[in-house]
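Write out this protein's structure.
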Amino acid sequence: MTGTGLLHDPVSGTTRRVTFDCETKFQPTLRVVDKSGNSLDVALADLSISRGGWRGDAITFVWKQEAHDWALTVDDPQTIANLTRQLPAPLSSSIESWQKNSRRGTRWSKAALVAGAVIALLPIFVIIALFVMRDRIIDAVISRIPTSVDAQIGDQMHQDLSASGKLIKDGPGVDALREVSRRFAPHLPAQDFQFRFEVVNDASVNAYAAPGGLVVVHTGLLAKADSADQLAGVLGHEIVHVTRRHSLRQLIYKLGLSTAARWLLGVPDSAADTLAGAAVNLSGLKFSRDQESDADAGGVDLLQKARLPAAGLHSFFRMLAENQEAVPAILSTHPADADRMAALEKLVAERGAWEIEPLTIDWSAVRLDAQERTKKQ
Protein backbone atom coordinates (compact mmCIF):
# COMPACT_ATOMS: atom_id res chain seq x y z
CA MET A 1 0.00 0.00 0.00
CA THR A 2 1.07 3.62 -0.48
CA GLY A 3 0.53 6.77 1.54
CA THR A 4 2.07 10.07 2.56
CA GLY A 5 3.72 11.23 5.74
CA LEU A 6 6.29 13.53 7.29
CA LEU A 7 9.89 12.30 7.26
CA HIS A 8 12.08 13.58 10.08
CA ASP A 9 15.61 13.45 8.57
CA PRO A 10 18.34 13.58 11.25
CA VAL A 11 21.11 13.89 8.65
CA SER A 12 19.87 17.09 7.02
CA GLY A 13 17.92 18.20 10.08
CA THR A 14 14.77 18.73 8.02
CA THR A 15 11.18 17.52 8.06
CA ARG A 16 9.59 17.04 4.67
CA ARG A 17 6.53 15.51 3.08
CA VAL A 18 7.21 12.14 1.45
CA THR A 19 5.36 9.20 -0.01
CA PHE A 20 5.89 5.69 1.22
CA ASP A 21 5.11 2.17 0.14
CA CYS A 22 4.71 -0.67 2.57
CA GLU A 23 5.47 -4.16 1.26
CA THR A 24 4.39 -6.89 3.66
CA LYS A 25 4.26 -10.13 1.62
CA PHE A 26 7.70 -11.04 0.29
CA GLN A 27 10.34 -8.85 1.88
CA PRO A 28 8.51 -6.78 4.52
CA THR A 29 9.90 -3.36 3.77
CA LEU A 30 9.01 0.29 4.19
CA ARG A 31 10.18 2.34 1.20
CA VAL A 32 10.22 6.12 1.60
CA VAL A 33 10.50 8.40 -1.47
CA ASP A 34 10.85 12.20 -1.36
CA LYS A 35 9.99 14.74 -4.08
CA SER A 36 13.48 14.52 -5.52
CA GLY A 37 13.09 10.80 -6.06
CA ASN A 38 15.51 9.84 -3.32
CA SER A 39 14.43 6.60 -1.70
CA LEU A 40 15.08 4.91 1.59
CA ASP A 41 14.31 1.24 2.35
CA VAL A 42 13.76 0.04 5.89
CA ALA A 43 12.95 -3.51 6.96
CA LEU A 44 9.69 -3.69 8.91
CA ALA A 45 11.50 -5.76 11.49
CA ASP A 46 13.72 -2.76 12.24
CA LEU A 47 10.75 -0.46 12.88
CA SER A 48 9.31 0.52 16.22
CA ILE A 49 6.05 2.42 16.43
CA SER A 50 4.62 5.09 18.73
CA ARG A 51 1.73 7.48 18.91
CA GLY A 52 2.26 10.87 17.27
CA GLY A 53 0.55 14.13 16.48
CA TRP A 54 -0.49 16.80 19.00
CA ARG A 55 -3.81 15.05 19.59
CA GLY A 56 -2.29 11.57 19.70
CA ASP A 57 -4.24 10.44 16.62
CA ALA A 58 -1.19 9.93 14.33
CA ILE A 59 1.40 7.14 14.30
CA THR A 60 5.17 7.46 14.03
CA PHE A 61 7.53 4.78 12.66
CA VAL A 62 11.03 5.02 14.19
CA TRP A 63 14.20 3.26 13.06
CA LYS A 64 17.95 3.61 13.44
CA GLN A 65 20.20 3.89 10.39
CA GLU A 66 23.91 4.71 10.37
CA ALA A 67 23.79 5.75 14.00
CA HIS A 68 20.93 8.20 13.33
CA ASP A 69 17.30 7.99 14.52
CA TRP A 70 14.85 8.43 11.67
CA ALA A 71 11.10 8.86 11.96
CA LEU A 72 8.07 8.87 9.67
CA THR A 73 4.78 10.32 10.97
CA VAL A 74 1.52 9.32 9.30
CA ASP A 75 -1.53 11.41 10.18
CA ASP A 76 -4.06 10.54 7.48
CA PRO A 77 -6.89 8.50 9.12
CA GLN A 78 -7.57 6.38 6.00
CA THR A 79 -3.88 5.56 5.54
CA ILE A 80 -3.60 4.59 9.19
CA ALA A 81 -6.68 2.35 8.81
CA ASN A 82 -5.09 0.64 5.80
CA LEU A 83 -1.80 0.15 7.67
CA THR A 84 -3.70 -1.38 10.59
CA ARG A 85 -5.11 -4.04 8.25
CA GLN A 86 -1.82 -4.82 6.47
CA LEU A 87 1.03 -4.46 8.94
CA PRO A 88 2.28 -7.43 10.96
CA ALA A 89 0.24 -8.25 14.05
CA PRO A 90 2.56 -6.68 16.65
CA LEU A 91 2.46 -3.32 14.84
CA SER A 92 -1.23 -3.38 13.87
CA SER A 93 -2.37 -4.38 17.38
CA SER A 94 -0.50 -1.41 18.84
CA ILE A 95 -2.21 0.93 16.37
CA GLU A 96 -5.66 -0.50 17.18
CA SER A 97 -5.05 -0.07 20.90
CA TRP A 98 -4.00 3.57 20.45
CA GLN A 99 -7.01 4.27 18.27
CA LYS A 100 -9.38 2.90 20.92
CA ASN A 101 -7.73 5.03 23.59
CA SER A 102 -7.88 8.05 21.28
CA ARG A 103 -11.62 7.58 20.65
CA ARG A 104 -12.22 7.12 24.37
CA GLY A 105 -10.22 10.24 25.12
CA THR A 106 -12.18 12.17 22.50
CA ARG A 107 -15.47 11.09 24.04
CA TRP A 108 -14.31 12.07 27.51
CA SER A 109 -13.06 15.39 26.18
CA LYS A 110 -16.43 16.13 24.60
CA ALA A 111 -18.23 15.06 27.75
CA ALA A 112 -15.93 17.27 29.82
CA LEU A 113 -16.61 20.21 27.51
CA VAL A 114 -20.37 19.68 27.76
CA ALA A 115 -20.17 19.31 31.55
CA GLY A 116 -18.04 22.43 31.79
CA ALA A 117 -20.50 24.39 29.65
CA VAL A 118 -23.43 23.23 31.78
CA ILE A 119 -21.64 24.18 34.99
CA ALA A 120 -20.69 27.57 33.56
CA LEU A 121 -24.26 28.24 32.42
CA LEU A 122 -25.90 26.78 35.55
CA PRO A 123 -26.26 30.15 37.33
CA ILE A 124 -28.03 31.55 34.26
CA PHE A 125 -30.32 28.50 34.09
CA VAL A 126 -31.13 28.91 37.79
CA ILE A 127 -31.95 32.61 37.34
CA ILE A 128 -34.19 31.85 34.36
CA ALA A 129 -35.93 29.05 36.26
CA LEU A 130 -36.49 31.32 39.26
CA PHE A 131 -37.89 34.05 37.03
CA VAL A 132 -40.23 31.69 35.19
CA MET A 133 -41.40 30.09 38.44
CA ARG A 134 -41.41 33.28 40.53
CA ASP A 135 -45.19 33.31 40.99
CA ARG A 136 -45.25 29.71 42.18
CA ILE A 137 -42.32 30.33 44.49
CA ILE A 138 -43.93 33.37 46.06
CA ASP A 139 -47.29 31.59 46.37
CA ALA A 140 -45.52 28.76 48.18
CA VAL A 141 -43.71 31.20 50.46
CA ILE A 142 -46.89 33.09 51.37
CA SER A 143 -48.66 29.84 52.20
CA ARG A 144 -45.89 29.15 54.74
CA ILE A 145 -46.08 32.58 56.37
CA PRO A 146 -48.71 32.70 59.16
CA THR A 147 -51.17 35.59 59.17
CA SER A 148 -49.66 36.64 62.50
CA VAL A 149 -46.78 38.01 60.44
CA ASP A 150 -49.23 40.23 58.53
CA ALA A 151 -50.55 41.50 61.86
CA GLN A 152 -47.04 42.30 63.13
CA ILE A 153 -46.31 44.31 59.98
CA GLY A 154 -49.60 46.19 60.32
CA ASP A 155 -48.84 46.98 63.97
CA GLN A 156 -45.40 48.29 63.06
CA MET A 157 -46.81 50.45 60.28
CA HIS A 158 -49.47 51.84 62.62
CA GLN A 159 -46.84 52.72 65.24
CA ASP A 160 -44.80 54.52 62.57
CA LEU A 161 -47.87 56.51 61.49
CA SER A 162 -48.66 57.45 65.08
CA ALA A 163 -45.08 58.61 65.63
CA SER A 164 -45.11 60.69 62.43
CA GLY A 165 -47.59 63.20 63.89
CA LYS A 166 -49.70 63.08 60.69
CA LEU A 167 -52.37 60.73 62.01
CA ILE A 168 -55.74 62.52 62.36
CA LYS A 169 -57.75 61.28 65.33
CA ASP A 170 -61.02 63.14 64.90
CA GLY A 171 -62.96 65.35 62.53
CA PRO A 172 -65.40 64.92 59.60
CA GLY A 173 -62.95 62.83 57.55
CA VAL A 174 -62.34 60.39 60.39
CA ASP A 175 -66.09 60.13 61.11
CA ALA A 176 -66.80 59.44 57.43
CA LEU A 177 -64.16 56.76 57.28
CA ARG A 178 -65.49 55.08 60.40
CA GLU A 179 -69.08 55.07 59.08
CA VAL A 180 -68.11 53.51 55.75
CA SER A 181 -65.87 50.92 57.42
CA ARG A 182 -68.70 49.89 59.76
CA ARG A 183 -70.81 49.02 56.73
CA PHE A 184 -68.09 46.65 55.53
CA ALA A 185 -67.22 45.12 58.90
CA PRO A 186 -69.93 42.37 59.02
CA HIS A 187 -68.89 41.11 55.59
CA LEU A 188 -65.12 40.78 56.07
CA PRO A 189 -63.71 37.23 55.93
CA ALA A 190 -62.74 35.52 59.18
CA GLN A 191 -58.98 36.10 59.33
CA ASP A 192 -56.45 36.93 62.01
CA PHE A 193 -56.47 40.57 60.92
CA GLN A 194 -57.35 43.63 62.97
CA PHE A 195 -58.79 46.10 60.50
CA ARG A 196 -57.97 49.72 61.29
CA PHE A 197 -58.99 52.61 59.07
CA GLU A 198 -56.96 55.76 59.51
CA VAL A 199 -56.76 59.24 57.98
CA VAL A 200 -53.34 60.79 57.44
CA ASN A 201 -52.79 64.48 56.74
CA ASP A 202 -51.09 64.25 53.37
CA ALA A 203 -51.92 66.34 50.31
CA SER A 204 -51.25 63.52 47.84
CA VAL A 205 -54.37 61.85 46.43
CA ASN A 206 -53.71 58.38 47.75
CA ALA A 207 -54.89 55.44 49.85
CA TYR A 208 -53.13 52.18 50.60
CA ALA A 209 -53.49 48.94 52.54
CA ALA A 210 -50.85 47.39 54.79
CA PRO A 211 -50.72 43.68 55.65
CA GLY A 212 -52.75 42.79 58.72
CA GLY A 213 -55.69 45.13 58.13
CA LEU A 214 -54.34 48.68 58.25
CA VAL A 215 -56.04 50.86 55.59
CA VAL A 216 -54.80 54.44 55.25
CA VAL A 217 -56.55 57.31 53.45
CA HIS A 218 -54.84 60.63 52.76
CA THR A 219 -56.63 63.93 53.28
CA GLY A 220 -55.67 64.70 49.68
CA LEU A 221 -57.99 61.91 48.54
CA LEU A 222 -60.83 63.12 50.77
CA ALA A 223 -60.41 66.63 49.38
CA LYS A 224 -60.52 65.34 45.80
CA ALA A 225 -63.32 62.74 45.98
CA ASP A 226 -66.78 63.91 44.93
CA SER A 227 -68.82 61.73 47.28
CA ALA A 228 -68.84 59.21 50.10
CA ASP A 229 -69.65 56.57 47.49
CA GLN A 230 -66.25 57.17 45.88
CA LEU A 231 -64.57 56.74 49.28
CA ALA A 232 -66.53 53.50 49.78
CA GLY A 233 -65.35 52.20 46.40
CA VAL A 234 -61.70 52.92 47.24
CA LEU A 235 -62.03 51.32 50.70
CA GLY A 236 -63.66 48.17 49.33
CA HIS A 237 -60.82 47.83 46.82
CA GLU A 238 -58.12 48.30 49.49
CA ILE A 239 -59.77 45.87 51.89
CA VAL A 240 -59.51 43.11 49.28
CA HIS A 241 -55.79 43.86 48.85
CA VAL A 242 -55.51 43.05 52.57
CA THR A 243 -57.68 39.93 52.69
CA ARG A 244 -56.02 38.42 49.59
CA ARG A 245 -52.57 39.31 51.05
CA HIS A 246 -51.61 41.24 47.92
CA SER A 247 -49.50 43.71 49.90
CA LEU A 248 -47.51 40.88 51.47
CA ARG A 249 -46.95 39.33 48.07
CA GLN A 250 -45.64 42.60 46.64
CA LEU A 251 -43.33 43.07 49.61
CA ILE A 252 -41.81 39.65 48.91
CA TYR A 253 -41.43 40.65 45.26
CA LYS A 254 -39.67 43.78 46.45
CA LEU A 255 -37.27 41.79 48.63
CA GLY A 256 -36.37 39.64 45.65
CA LEU A 257 -36.51 36.02 44.51
CA SER A 258 -33.37 35.09 46.42
CA THR A 259 -35.10 35.95 49.70
CA ALA A 260 -38.24 34.13 48.59
CA ALA A 261 -36.24 31.03 47.67
CA ARG A 262 -34.54 30.99 51.08
CA TRP A 263 -37.85 31.41 52.86
CA LEU A 264 -39.32 28.57 50.82
CA LEU A 265 -37.00 26.27 52.75
CA GLY A 266 -38.27 27.62 56.05
CA VAL A 267 -39.69 30.98 57.10
CA PRO A 268 -37.24 32.54 59.60
CA ASP A 269 -38.31 34.11 62.87
CA SER A 270 -37.15 37.48 61.54
CA ALA A 271 -39.59 37.39 58.60
CA ALA A 272 -41.88 40.00 60.12
CA ASP A 273 -39.01 42.40 60.85
CA THR A 274 -37.60 41.95 57.33
CA LEU A 275 -40.99 42.55 55.70
CA ALA A 276 -41.74 45.50 57.94
CA GLY A 277 -38.46 47.06 56.91
CA ALA A 278 -39.39 46.63 53.24
CA ALA A 279 -42.82 48.15 53.90
CA VAL A 280 -41.48 51.57 54.89
CA ASN A 281 -42.77 53.11 51.66
CA LEU A 282 -45.88 50.98 51.40
CA SER A 283 -47.89 53.80 49.84
CA GLY A 284 -45.76 53.44 46.71
CA LEU A 285 -46.25 49.69 46.35
CA LYS A 286 -47.46 48.69 42.89
CA PHE A 287 -49.81 45.78 42.39
CA SER A 288 -49.94 43.52 39.36
CA ARG A 289 -52.74 43.73 36.80
CA ASP A 290 -54.19 40.45 38.09
CA GLN A 291 -54.15 41.73 41.67
CA GLU A 292 -55.88 44.94 40.64
CA SER A 293 -58.57 42.98 38.81
CA ASP A 294 -58.96 40.71 41.84
CA ALA A 295 -59.32 43.71 44.16
CA ASP A 296 -61.85 45.32 41.82
CA ALA A 297 -64.00 42.18 41.72
CA GLY A 298 -63.73 41.59 45.45
CA GLY A 299 -64.44 45.25 46.13
CA VAL A 300 -67.64 45.18 44.08
CA ASP A 301 -68.71 42.07 45.99
CA LEU A 302 -68.17 43.88 49.31
CA LEU A 303 -70.11 46.92 48.09
CA GLN A 304 -73.04 44.71 47.13
CA LYS A 305 -73.04 42.96 50.52
CA ALA A 306 -72.84 46.33 52.31
CA ARG A 307 -75.67 47.67 50.11
CA LEU A 308 -73.49 50.48 48.78
CA PRO A 309 -73.36 51.76 45.17
CA ALA A 310 -70.78 50.15 42.91
CA ALA A 311 -70.21 53.20 40.72
CA GLY A 312 -68.02 55.01 43.26
CA LEU A 313 -64.70 53.33 42.50
CA HIS A 314 -65.15 53.58 38.72
CA SER A 315 -66.20 57.22 38.80
CA PHE A 316 -63.34 58.16 41.14
CA PHE A 317 -60.64 56.62 38.96
CA ARG A 318 -62.24 58.00 35.80
CA MET A 319 -62.31 61.48 37.32
CA LEU A 320 -58.63 61.26 38.26
CA ALA A 321 -57.62 59.83 34.87
CA GLU A 322 -59.35 62.70 33.07
CA ASN A 323 -57.57 65.26 35.24
CA GLN A 324 -54.95 67.04 33.14
CA GLU A 325 -52.83 67.96 36.15
CA ALA A 326 -50.01 65.87 37.60
CA VAL A 327 -50.88 62.16 37.86
CA PRO A 328 -52.20 61.45 41.40
CA ALA A 329 -50.19 59.03 43.54
CA ILE A 330 -53.02 56.51 43.62
CA LEU A 331 -52.96 56.18 39.82
CA SER A 332 -49.24 55.44 39.82
CA THR A 333 -49.83 52.41 42.07
CA HIS A 334 -53.35 51.53 40.83
CA PRO A 335 -53.29 52.29 37.08
CA ALA A 336 -56.75 53.10 35.70
CA ASP A 337 -56.33 52.30 32.01
CA ALA A 338 -59.19 51.89 29.55
CA ASP A 339 -59.15 48.08 29.78
CA ARG A 340 -59.48 48.15 33.55
CA MET A 341 -62.31 50.67 33.45
CA ALA A 342 -64.15 48.63 30.83
CA ALA A 343 -63.71 45.44 32.86
CA LEU A 344 -65.02 47.20 35.97
CA GLU A 345 -68.09 48.46 34.11
CA LYS A 346 -68.77 44.97 32.77
CA LEU A 347 -68.37 43.47 36.24
CA VAL A 348 -70.96 45.83 37.72
CA ALA A 349 -73.36 45.39 34.78
CA GLU A 350 -73.24 41.58 35.08
CA ARG A 351 -74.32 41.73 38.71
CA GLY A 352 -77.35 43.87 37.94
CA ALA A 353 -79.03 46.27 40.34
CA TRP A 354 -79.09 45.63 44.08
CA GLU A 355 -80.72 47.30 47.09
CA ILE A 356 -78.90 50.45 48.19
CA GLU A 357 -78.80 51.86 51.72
CA PRO A 358 -77.44 55.43 51.31
CA LEU A 359 -74.65 56.72 53.53
CA THR A 360 -75.62 59.60 55.82
CA ILE A 361 -72.46 61.65 55.46
CA ASP A 362 -72.15 65.40 54.95
CA TRP A 363 -69.55 65.10 52.20
CA SER A 364 -69.16 68.83 51.69
CA ALA A 365 -67.99 69.08 55.32
CA VAL A 366 -65.55 66.21 54.78
CA ARG A 367 -64.03 67.85 51.70
CA LEU A 368 -63.80 71.28 53.30
CA ASP A 369 -62.09 69.89 56.42
CA ALA A 370 -59.65 67.88 54.31
CA GLN A 371 -58.82 70.89 52.14
CA GLU A 372 -58.16 73.05 55.18
CA ARG A 373 -55.93 70.41 56.77
CA THR A 374 -53.82 69.91 53.62
CA LYS A 375 -53.23 73.64 53.43
CA LYS A 376 -51.69 73.59 56.92
CA GLN A 377 -49.15 70.86 56.12
